[in-house]
Amino acid sequence: MEVITGTLVAPATYKRLAYLLTALVLGPVWFSALVAVWSVCVGLAITPFVIPALIVLAYMTRGFAALEAALARLLLDVDANAPVAVRSRPGFWGWLRGLFGPGFWRAQAYLLIRWFAGFPIAIAVITALAVSLATLAAPAWVPFVHGGVQLGIWRPHTFVQSLVGVPIGLLLLPVSVLIADALALPFGPPASSLLRPDSDAVTVAIPEGTARRRPPARPGQKLEVHAAVDAVLVAVPIVIWAVTAQGYFWPVWVALPLATALAIHAWFVLLAERPSVVAHFRGSRMLAASTGIGVALATFLTAIWAITARGYFWPVWPMLGIAIVLAIELLAVLLLSPRRAELTERIETLETTRAGAVDVQETELRRIERDLHDGAQARLVALGMSLGMAEQKLTDDPERAGELLAEARLDAEHALKELRDLARGIHPPVLADRGLEAALDSLASSTPLRVVVSVHVAPRPAPAVESAAYFVAAEALANAAKHARARQVDIRIARLGDTLELEVRDDGDGGANPDGAGLQGLRRRVEALDGSLTVISPRGGPTTIRAELPCA
Amino acid sequence: MRVVIAEDLVLLRDGLTRLLRDNDIEVAAAVSDGEALVREVVARRPDLAIVDIRLPPSFQDEGLRAALEARRRVPDLAVLVVSQYVEHTYAQELLADGRGGVGYLLKDRVMHVADFLEAVRRVAGGGTALDPDVVAQLFSRHREDGPLERLTPRELEVLSLMAEGRSNAGIADSLVLTVGAVEKHVQSILSKLDLPQSPTDHRRVLAVLAYLQRAH
Question: Chain B interface residues facing chain A, Cβ-Cβ under 8 Å?
């Protein structure tokens, strides 16, 4: 009892009631607008004019969904948002494809639900409310109607007779409100699950935890509640029908839309809990969902046809529309599947190149540690020893002490030079300060080879790209001097659009091993930046090393 | 002589200050960033600024830019840039205005105290001091079949000392030759490389560097 009175006094109940009644206007508007624009799209399907029509459709759907989402937030108190375009690729086609993301199709589904389920329910609710109010107010108007008014099984004529309507109306009104409330509740879950931006857009924009305000319930649990509510909702009119005139079985009009909504809900739950079902739809959740909705709607329409006049099988037209939508989706899935394969491949590439980058780093760190240990550290030990010995000899053999001090200074100079070379090998300072051209120029000055450098890279690429290009050139130069017995090396670096192209060509005797440690390290370094490295080194030469590095 | 030092590492700043003071050179100020350098130079008008290339906040070529700025504000300021590494690109930028009183040395050179002080005095007096490493970088651009091939090994030695900014007397000292012998070598080099006779040591350095910078 407390539950009932609580429901009756809660403002939320009347907000939900208002939400149901908005379908009276919005349902037909959504349906007729969507049917009209979809028809235009289908009609123009093979012409280029379909593109503006599709854009209109996308923006219209988004606009409608935004209004619906606002209503759902305001009146149903659920977390609903209009879908946003998710851009997976650059360019106009990427943008267009982004408009028709899963969010668009969910919004379509919800708008249709508002028509197919929302509108009949709204009619039923407003009728129930009108009847209750009319019964309640019977004494105010019945006496003025000549010949009395038939109210169900009862026909009052006078004021006194119609006073009976007051308690009945008083009973009917809250019952109507409770029924309306129960009918409005099932709109919450689809509103929040269908009216939302695509999940990846959400996780990018909002950190985990704030994206969802409500803890997620198990989908099946909600379905059970939904079914129970529906059962009550159907049972009530059947009982009313049974105790009243019987005859035409009108409760079927309550049962049909509810059953359709329940079937769609059940299908979504099935899809959520059994991923294997989705696999039958080429792995597309969207196609699976649409098929379920389509079948439910087709059944719904066929049932209407069967119950009503039969004759001309008019549901063939909406069914044709549904079939076209499904065909388009199937086509989209078939066309998008290669993209899935692309993604899988991309993930594999990333895994390999990341492992490569980690290896390169590990090898580098080990090399640096070894160089420090064998070079500068050893020099500093020697320097310390010279200083210690000079200290000993200072008083009795000043001449020897002077020699030792000179040795110590020499050791310090060598240590500094080794550290300087090591620093240059990690990251040459001039590369950061002045860019590739100055750095390669400096590199060229420090080799015995004749080096011709040509660099055209403005604007400067990212530091990682510059550094990779520098080390490819440095390694190639070192190889040319060490192994290929080259005399001249040409280094060309040019920026072509979003790609940095580097070519190092020597006049040596070739035969470089592309799987050797040095070139392998370079390849990993380049691949970690999504670039590619090619080594052409026939026996007898010449050797050409080419690298392409993306630098958008 | 009055000097301002800009070096961000306390150890090196204090060491350099002590080394200069021990040799009767007045250190008017020792600062740790480029902005302070320009401020002190403008306020104290020293004869020379000794500047580390890499200074905060960017730790790139902050010191070089500050030195050039200080020289723009106080045109008769001499600048000696020191660094853990040398690049001939920076030497070019320092020498670009064609005026004397510029030096560019590895920090290592401080260890040869006498040579370092000689370079400090030379730069403060309007001369040039380029690190042998910079000169070697410039030399390496010239290959076996270039005009440098026509020079004798002794002439090459003299040429690199000329490029470092040394006077004939300085070259004679360092190669253990007479000044007359050095003058003869210089004449021969200038005519072999088609370089003009220059009135000052600094002009001579610029001419030699300009020649070396043209890769053959």
Answer: 54, 60-61, 84-85, 87-90, 106-108, 111-112, 137-138, 140-141, 143
Looking at per-residue pLDDT, the higher value among A189 and A87 belongs to: A189
Residue A489 CA to chain centroid, in angstroms?
A: 48
What is the rounded (10 degree) CA torsion for B15, B164, A423, B113? -20
Q: What is the mean pLDDT of chain B?
A: 89
Cis preceding-peptide flag for B57 (omega within 30 of 0): yes
ipTM of the complex in this document: 0.79
| Residue keyed to tokens 């909504």 | A261
Chain A residue with minimum CA distance to B92: A438
Q: How far is CA A38 from CA A315, A465, B18, in A?
A: 17, 48, 86
Residues of A in contact with B143 (CB under 8 A): 450
Q: What is the identity of the amino acid at A130?
A: A
A448, B140 contact by CB (below 8 A)? yes
At residue A210, the pLDDT reads 37
* Residues B185/B158, Cβ–Cβ less than 8 Å: yes
Distant-in-sequence, close-in-space partners of B123: CB < 8 Å, separation ≥ 6:
B48, B78, B79, B80, B101, B102, B103, B129
* Percent of chain A that is helix, strand, coil (3-state, to 5): 70, 5, 25
CA angle A76, A77, A81 (to 5 degrees): 95
User: What CA–CA distance (Å, rounded) separates A549 from A531?
Assistant: 4
Dig out the tokens for B179 from the structure: 């000044």
DSSP state of A39: H
| pLDDT at position B52 | 94
Spell out the residues 6+ positions from residue A393 whose beta carbon is closer than 8 angstroms to its own: A400, A401, A404
The predicted pLDDT at position A337 comes to 65
* pLDDT category of residue A215 using cuts at 50, 70 and 90: very low
- pTM here is 0.54
Among B60, B49, B164, B133, residue whose Cα is nearest residue A420: B133
Backbone φ/ψ region at A510: left (φ over 0), alpha (ψ -120 to 50), beta? left
| B134 phi, psi to nearest 5 deg | -65, -45
- Asked if A424 reaches chain B (Cβ–Cβ under 8 Å), the answer is yes
d(CA B44, CA B70) in angstroms, rounded, equals 12
Query: Is a pLDDT exceeding 70 seen at residue A505?
Result: yes
A434–B61 CB contact, under 8 Å: yes
Q: How far is CA B180 from CA A74, B163, B174, B177, B202, in A?
A: 101, 19, 14, 8, 20
Among the listed residues B127, B136, B126, the one whose alpha carbon sits nearest the alpha carbon of residue B159: B136
CA torsion angle B153 B156 B161 B164 (round to 10):
-140
